[in-house]
Amino acid sequence: MSRDHRKVPSIHVGLLRDNRLFRGMDDATLERLLKDLPPELVQPGDMLMAEGDIATYMFAILTGELEVLTHGGGENADVRVALLGPGDWVGEMGIIDVQPRSATVRALAPSVLMRLTAANVKELIQDHDLAQYARMMVNIARGMGRRLRVADRLIAQSSAAVAKQYVLESMRPPPPPKAE
Asked: 5-171, superfamily in CATH?
């Protein structure tokens, strides 16, 4: 992943405040994050996370656009499951539960990101102010809830389509027997 800190645009507290991950957090906490976590500039095509890798960090998206891909199964093709932009974040499970990544994330446009590890969150937020840490965790939980509701809807729609196809197939007369 290419990172050129010289080309990163100026980042300010307002940009962090606009990100749902940091919503409701105080300026002192946001200033501490800006001071200790330099923003990273990534370019289109840069892979930020790979499905199956152990998750150890997440990104807050300050500018740009990322795509989230997951392996599509038997067709050996990746399936785009999300497009993310400013105000979003990705990889939060790397902060909560260190397990293999469930998806691949790639930059679609030049993007400015803030990388956070579990150690960063503990040192810069949790150890300074538990209320700010709780606010961030609530924001993550709300984001995960939104994603779960979308996934539930998609599963229900997919299940309905599969069930309908099953019913149609089961009503179709069997093929004629083959002549011997």
From this structure: Jelly Rolls (2.60.120.10)
User: 3-state DSSP call for residue 15?
Assistant: helix
Integer angstrom CA distances of residue 40 from 11, 17, 141, 173? 11, 18, 25, 61
139-161 pLDDT, tens digit each: 999 988 888 888 777 777 777 77
The DSSP annotation for 52-91 comes to TSBP-EEEEEEES-EEEEEE-STT--EEEEEEE-TT-EE-
Contact present, 42 and 110 (Cβ < 8 Å): yes
Beta bridge partners of 78: 71
| Contacts of 110 by beta carbon, 8 Å cutoff, 6+ apart | 41, 42, 43, 44, 63, 64
Distance CA 98, CA 104 (A): 16
Q: Give the pLDDT mean for 68-81.
A: 78
106-137 burial, b at 16+ Cβ within 10 Å, e below that, comes to: bbbeebbbbbbebebbeebbbeebeebbebbb
**Angle at the Cα of 122 from the Cα atoms of 26 and 146, rounded to 5 degrees:** 65
Domain ranges of the chain: 5-171
